[in-house]
């Protein structure tokens, strides 16, 4: 890839766009509402981090994988560079031996030894019998021990055995002299020294534990259980120093056990000893695997496992290692008998190799032998004593690592050799060194996490050379480099013979290391690694320890200490980050860009961008230096930061859109390949948060309580680095946008290019949102720790406790459960504050400033509302109390959507207790609206609550809130009814006034659904009349709402009556009467009667509905008539209601609904043969049909005449049947055909003329209510008709006699005072003429009739 110019015009213009730091700090304090959380976006960004964790765990292979590549039983691949910026190690500082010690070298004949004890941060120096412990952290601080007389030859610090010493003693110092071994107890505490550096302060305790020996002990090691092993200098035996709290019958308090020849030998140490040439020269402890190793003078390595008390189990001895090494690396000139002397053994931590590599041996000329758990067919595994690592398995040599053949002499390395920048690339070999240095006399070495430092005498007096090796990640890692390095490395020389490697495309890379030679002053006595604070193991996928790319921004650099007779030299591992800083300085000072381009090509675009971002934004681990800088944010100079920023922008390139086409279809989809800037951002972000991200928030702490799973200092450090990153990105928003003029010339690709930029910017904004929330989450956890997190969790409900204890840091930030748990914890904190009478302003302000997304303005509002309620409860001043309650209601109402139902109920309860009707009514009503913001529940209710509707959930929420209002009203009702006993309550006003006010507020609500609920509640409590009297606004709509019920319509017609709308009342009554309900017939008749009455009350002028009203009334009256008929039919059939079969059911049905006239006639009157009902139906329906009515009357007469009875009895029966019907139906011709009935009566009279008196027929008709004139007309018509039976003289004379009686009765009635026949209407002339006619035609023998006629004439003349 061609070099991009280090500064572009567009970039310089954009540099000034950033937001000033102070402005940013103001902005970051602006609280964001919780609702603004985009959880899907946060989860998407979190998945990006997880992908980065996975990448970091995979890009650098496991050390074991590189040592076991097919055909790779030996290797000698090294990267040796002449320039200093790629040197893997750097001398950091030299701390000279304190001057105060030199006064003790007062004679030439002193014996002095020294060594390192990094566990207690001390160098031990012995001068004859005096022991000095030099605190190299402070530099000049020395403590001494002079309480024994013998020359001290060796000192070690080990763990104490459990239960032997007091708790303060955390370590035991073992002091060896030629004739004794002495134990000193040590206690340690960390204190703050000068320059704010922490240091260890030690105290020594005499233990009175000493044992005499005839052998000088050396190479003392301790096991994790406190057992101590060592070897004898003279005899090379393996010894154990056994000590216990007190002496027993069979063993002393402290004694030595010789494991080489058995425990008996310890009593007689001089009688035998191992062969001197194979004696043990070193013991090395492996506490994590619960074993230790010994190295013999003849290069044999033995493995032991500490088994039972005072016993060890010999697992294996590996001999003939020279031969085994030759088999692995045949023909290598580095393997010769004279140089094959193992000088040190090093343990490989179990976490360093997944494949079981556990031991490294190094020879005097730098050959390294790697041993792994035996995997061959003859291997076996057993575990006499179970241990954390399981049984100790035998080892075998798996790889021989040959020394670098082309090391540069330190003199050549010291002057930077930079000619290669412009002439060579990383894949071409550098010029051969003018004098390559061959390692030949290593004496000391130290190993840590793949790094090896070994010392040998230099080629000038007073100087030692250090051989330093470290994995070359650019060669062994899959870092996405554009030009992967070739397998044949520049430093692989043929002088060590051919080495074959697999050439498969997916071949694991062989081990390649940086190698360098450094010169230090003095002769080396000892070396050790500088202890680092270990990052706690994380659940997230972890990178191998060799992958420093993943940890360089979250852990301090690895350091080594080399103790010489001049002082203590600190050697620091230079990380990729340090290389990068050096090449950026090169760009900045000399304008040379080749090194940074080489760096990018070596480490790959994305890794380089991640490191550039870390450099530009600042990081607590940026400075590879002093411990004092730990935890302080380090930044580079602005000039260098600008170069880093420019390089980040230029190297990042642009995102690319890739289309995916599904063959055979026109469907295509695409995805973005993100730019290096976005990948670098995600990678750096992931590396900062990996120690926290996947881990649980809490762990079990003190009995019954949880505690934070993260140390505060870890949280603070991560947060500092995240905040620096956020501040940098906020100041440089242009970093993720394309520069002007950078767009492709080709128009066709511009659409895809825009898609790619859009996808990139979306991803970046999600990551930035996650970054902000993560910073706030850390603040939130730190704040909770201040308030004792464990106690807060214990105060949550059980479900929330379970939620929190199972929650990871990631869950807290990205999940709804996290939001829920955070709110619950904040509520507990606030409750605690309120409970302690502390204002919530301070805590809510802190919450909003430090973690706004965890405590929104709404939350704060609710906290203040609750505080106002508390103040109201405490206040004794009614006005003040009213103000506090009003403020609380205002705040609760504003934050109503945040309140859960239980909290609403709790607050309502407090309002009820305080007699605050306004709050107890208005708050639940506000919450009902807030819980259904889109009115979905209201729509569902308006739609008459259809089944299986998702909106029901919102409707139910509303109803629960309404229930709270109703509960408040009932509470106030109760308080009012008990007002006498409530005088001493907390209420503000008297209970009756509160009750009245609460009802007023409820009725003034504009929520129709609430009104409906309220009306139902009142009606159910028997307060319907009061409700009608009030006539509230939504009552009419409520009573008309589906489903229609009889009680609602019963109230509705009354409502209309009270509202002056009688016609509407009549309409409702009509609907009620005809409704398909279980109303009984008499009730329906009542409703119809009321309907008619109300319809008649309708004023003529209202609304121009007069004609409609008349039509409606007519219709109603007809229905009423029919209903009345139906009632009579029903009553007539009532005795037969319980008849079996269909008849009884028909009669029951008659009482339940309204029928038509036709149905009444055809279904009831006809089948049940009810002549009177038939007449009634004909009468009411005004149906004229002689063929129907005459048979009915025939039947009535037939039923009245009893066979065998005398004429008078039958006459009485006829009168009893006919007169009531006549009175009821006359003048209805439909039901009472006068002429026909008269003819039936006359025929009966003719038939029985001898037994019935004259005038019987007309008198029956007059009794029926027929006027005299109408009866006369009918009889006169018969008289004149000549139709049988009136065609005979006898028939005519009977009619004439009846007419005479009729006219006489009429005359007498007319004469009577208060007569129903007015005198003026009496037809005197007509009667006079007719009487004349009747007399003229009267039969001879009709004297009685004649006398009546003549009497009539006289009366007429006398009175008229």
UniProtKB/TrEMBL annotation:
Domain of life: Eukaryota
Record-linked InterPro entries: Nucleoporin_Nup133/Nup155_C, Nucleoporin_Nup133/Nup155_N, Nucleoporin_Nup155, Nucleoporin_Nup155_C_1, Nucleoporin_Nup155_C_2, Nucleoporin_Nup155_C_3, WD40_repeat_dom_sf
Domain spans labelled Nucleoporin Nup133/Nup155-like N-terminal: 95-568
Region (Disordered): 1-37, 402-438, 477-507
Keywords, in A-Z order: Nucleus, Transport
Residue stretches of biased makeup (Low complexity): 484-494
Annotated Nucleoporin Nup133/Nup155-like C-terminal domain residues: 675-1341
GO BP terms: protein import into nucleus; protein localization to nuclear inner membrane; RNA export from nucleus; transcription-dependent tethering of RNA polymerase II gene DNA at nuclear periphery
UniProt xrefs under PANTHER family: NUCLEAR PORE COMPLEX PROTEIN NUP155 (PTHR10350)
Protein name: Nucleoporin
Native source species: Suillus luteus UH-Slu-Lm8-n1
């Amino acid at each position: 890839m061609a070099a991009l110019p280090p500064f572009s015009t567009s970039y310089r213009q954009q540099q000034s766009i950033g937001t000033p730091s102070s402005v940013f700090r103001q902005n970051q304090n602006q609280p964001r509402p919780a609702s603004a959380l985009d959880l899907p976006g946060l989860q998407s960004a979190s998945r990006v981090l997880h992908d980065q964790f996975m990448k970091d765990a995979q890009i650098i292979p496991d050390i074991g994988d590189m040592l076991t590549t097919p055909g790779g039983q030996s290797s000698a691949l090294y990267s040796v560079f002449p320039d200093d910026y790629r040197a893997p190690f750097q001398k950091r500082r030299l701390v000279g031996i304190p001057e105060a010690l030199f006064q003790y070298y007062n004679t030439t004949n002193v014996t002095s030894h020294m060594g390192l004890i990094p566990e207690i941060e001390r160098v031990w120096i012995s001068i004859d019998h005096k022991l000095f412990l030099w605190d190299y952290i402070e530099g000049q601080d020395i403590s001494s021990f002079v309480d024994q007389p013998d020359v001290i030859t060796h000192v070690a610090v080990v763990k104490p055995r459990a239960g032997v010493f007091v708790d303060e003693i955390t370590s035991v110092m073992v002091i060896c002299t030629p004739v004794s071994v002495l134990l000193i107890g040590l206690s340690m505490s960390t204190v703050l020294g000068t320059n704010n550096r922490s240091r260890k302060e030690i105290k020594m305790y005499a233990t009175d534990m000493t044992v005499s020996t005839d052998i000088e002990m050396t190479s003392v090691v301790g096991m994790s259980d406190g057992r101590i092993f060592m070897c004898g200098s003279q005899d090379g035996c393996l010894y154990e120093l056994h000590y216990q709290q007190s002496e027993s019958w069979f063993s002393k308090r402290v004694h030595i056990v010789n494991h080489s020849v058995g425990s008996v030998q310890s009593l007689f140490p001089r009688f035998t000893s191992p062969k001197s040439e194979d004696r043990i020269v070193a013991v090395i402890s492996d506490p994590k695997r619960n074993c230790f190793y010994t190295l013999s003078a003849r290069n044999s390595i033995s493995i032991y496992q500490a088994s039972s008390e005072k016993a060890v189990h010999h697992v294996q001895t590996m001999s003939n290692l020279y031969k085994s090494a030759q088999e692995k690396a045949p023909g290598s000139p580095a393997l010769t008998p004279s140089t094959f002397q193992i000088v040190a053994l090093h343990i490989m931590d179990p976490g360093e190799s997944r494949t079981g590599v556990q031991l490294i041996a190094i020879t005097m000329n730098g050959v390294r032998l790697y041993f792994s758990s035996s995997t061959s067919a003859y291997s076996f595994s057993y575990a006499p004593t179970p241990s954390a690592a399981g049984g100790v398995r035998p080892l075998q040599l798996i790889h021989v690592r040959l020394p670098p053949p082309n090391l540069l002499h330190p003199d050549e390395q010291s002057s930077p050799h930079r000619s290669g920048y412009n002439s060579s690339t990383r894949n071409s070999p550098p010029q051969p060194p003018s004098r390559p240095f061959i390692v030949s006399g290593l004496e000391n070495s130290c190993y840590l996490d793949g790094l090896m430092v070994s010392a040998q005498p230099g080629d000038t007096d007073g100087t030692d050379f250090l051989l330093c090796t470290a994995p070359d990640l650019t060669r062994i890692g899959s870092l996405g480099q554009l030009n992967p390095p070739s397998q044949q490395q520049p430093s692989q020389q043929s002088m060590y013979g051919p080495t074959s490697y697999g050439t498969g495309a997916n071949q694991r890379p062989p081990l390649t290391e940086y190698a360098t030679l450094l010169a230090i002053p003095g002769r080396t006595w000892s070396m050790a690694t500088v202890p680092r604070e270990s990052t706690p193991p994380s659940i997230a996928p972890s990178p191998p320890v060799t992958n420093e790319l993943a940890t360089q921004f979250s852990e301090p650099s690895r350091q080594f200490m080399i103790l010489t007779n001049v002082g203590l030299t600190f050697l620091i591992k230079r990380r990729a980050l340090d290389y990068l800083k050096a090449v950026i300085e090169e760009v900045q000072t000399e304008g040379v860009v080749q090194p940074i381009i080489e760096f990018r090509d070596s480490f790959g675009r994305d890794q380089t961008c991640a490191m550039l971002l870390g450099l530009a934004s600042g990081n607590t681990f940026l400075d590879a230096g002093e411990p004092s800088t730990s935890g302080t944010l380090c930044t580079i100079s602005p000039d260098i930061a600008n170069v880093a920023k420019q390089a980040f922008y230029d190297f990042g390139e642009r995102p690319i859109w890739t289309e995916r086409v599904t063959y055979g279809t026109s469907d295509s989809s695409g995805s973005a390949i993100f730019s290096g800037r976005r990948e670098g951002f995600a990678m750096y972000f992931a590396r900062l948060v990996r120690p926290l991200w996947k881990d649980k928030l809490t762990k079990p702490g003190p009995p019954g309580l949880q505690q934070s799973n993260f140390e505060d200092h870890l949280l603070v450090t991560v947060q500092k680095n995240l905040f620096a990153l956020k501040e940098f990105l906020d100041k440089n928003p242009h970093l993720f946008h394309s520069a002007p003029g950078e767009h492709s010339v080709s128009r066709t690709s511009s659409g895809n290019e825009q898609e790619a930029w859009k996808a990139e910017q979306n991803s970046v904004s999600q990551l930035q949102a996650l970054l902000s929330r993560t910073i706030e989450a850390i603040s939130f956890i730190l704040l909770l720790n201040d308030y004792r997190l464990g106690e807060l969790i214990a105060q949550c409900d059980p479900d929330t406790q379970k939620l929190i204890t199972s929650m990871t840091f990631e869950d807290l930030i990205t999940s709804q459960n996290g939001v829920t748990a955070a709110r619950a914890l904040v509520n507990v904190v606030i409750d605690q504050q309120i409970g302690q009478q502390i204002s919530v302003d301070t805590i809510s302000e802190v919450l909003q400033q430090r973690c706004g997304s965890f405590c929104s303005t709404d939350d704060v509002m609710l906290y203040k509302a609750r505080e106002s309620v508390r103040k109201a409860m405490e206040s004794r001043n009614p006005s003040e109390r009213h103000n506090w309650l009003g403020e609380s209601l205002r705040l609760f109402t504003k934050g109503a959507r945040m309140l859960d139902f239980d909290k609403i109920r709790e607050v309502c309860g407090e309002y009820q207790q305080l007699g605050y009707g306004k709050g107890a009514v208005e708050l639940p009503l506000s919450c009902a609206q807030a819980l259904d913001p889109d009115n979905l529940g209201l729509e569902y209710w308006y739609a008459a609550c259809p089944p299986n509707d998702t909106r029901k959930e919102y409707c139910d929420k509303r109803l629960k809130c309404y229930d709270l209002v109703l509960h408040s009203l009932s509470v106030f009702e109760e308080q009012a009814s008990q007002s006498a006993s409530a005088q001493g309550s907390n209420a503000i006003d008297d209970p009756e006034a509160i009750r009245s006010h609460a009802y007023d507020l409820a009725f003034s609500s504009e929520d129709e659904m609430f009104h409906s609920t309220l009306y139902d509640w009142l009606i159910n409590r028997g307060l319907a009349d009061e409700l009608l009297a009030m006539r509230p606004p939504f009552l009419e709509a409520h009573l008309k709402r589906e489903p229609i019920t009889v009680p609602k319509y019963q109230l509705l017609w009354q409502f209309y009556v009270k509202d002056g709308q009688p016609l509407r009342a009549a309409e409702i009554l009509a609907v009620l009467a005809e409704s398909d309900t279980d109303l009984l017939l008499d009730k329906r008749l009542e409703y119809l009667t009321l309907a008619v009455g109300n319809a008649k009350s309708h004023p003529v002028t209202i609304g121009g509905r007069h004609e409609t009203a008349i039509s409606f009334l007519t219709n109603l009256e007809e229905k009423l008539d029919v209903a009345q008929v139906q009632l009579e039919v029903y009553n007539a059939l009532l005795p037969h209601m319980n008849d079996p079969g269909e008849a009884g059911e028909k009669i029951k049905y008659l009482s339940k609904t309204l029928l038509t006239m036709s149905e009444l006639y055809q279904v009831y009157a006809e089948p049940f043969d009810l002549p009177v009902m038939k007449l009634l139906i004909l009468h009411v329906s005004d149906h004229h049909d002689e063929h129907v009515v005459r048979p009915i009357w025939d039947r009535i007469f037939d039923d009245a005449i009893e066979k065998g009875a005398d004429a008078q009895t039958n006459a009485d029966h006829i009168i009893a049947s006919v007169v009531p019907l006549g009175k009821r139906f006359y003048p209805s011709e439909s039901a009472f055909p006068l002429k026909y009935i008269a003819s039936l009566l006359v025929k009966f009279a003719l038939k029985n003329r001898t037994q019935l008196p004259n005038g019987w027929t007309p008198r029956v008709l007059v009794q029926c209510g027929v006027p005299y004139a109408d009866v006369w007309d009918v009889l006169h018509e018969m008289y004149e008709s000549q139709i049988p039976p009136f065609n005979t003289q006898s028939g005519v004379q009977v009619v004439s006699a009846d007419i005479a009686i009729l006219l006489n009765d009429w005359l007498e009635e007319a004469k009577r005072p208060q007569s129903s026949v007015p005198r003026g209407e009496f037809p005197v002339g007509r009667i006079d003429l007719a009487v004349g006619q009747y007399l003229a035609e009267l039969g001879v023998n009709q004297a009685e009739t004649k006398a009546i006629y003549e009497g009539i004439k006289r009366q007429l003349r006398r009175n008229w």
